[in-house]
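Entry details:
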Amino acid sequence: MRIGELSRRTGVHERLLRYYEQQGLLRPLRRSSGYREYEEDDVTVVGRIRSLLAAGLNTATIATVLPCLQKDEPRLVPSCPSLVADLHRERERITAAITDLQASRAMLDTVIAAAPKEFAAQNFLDVIEATPSPRTARSGKG
């Protein structure tokens, strides 16, 4: 199938499919005319790419995950034991990002709560300066 059909079947824009190819996530065959030729399995691969992206993985990590997934089911093949450790590290990275975002949200809540109906710019700056940044608080720097 050509790229337009893969796009229609997956709901993924053609430009994004080309990007997946550039990142090594898709490997379509090339016709003599230069057109990309996708296989039926690529519909499943695109779905997996979308799911892994939604899980917070970057394309470089996804490129290492895809070959480790069994063709017909979302299980890891036995030949990829180190992948689980890599995924645990990704999970830790995402957890740290969530912690930072939650601290940022709490800081914004403090700023919003301190804002009077007739908001004064100086009060805003005082609250911001008095509230430690999530990154500063975590790193111990001030």
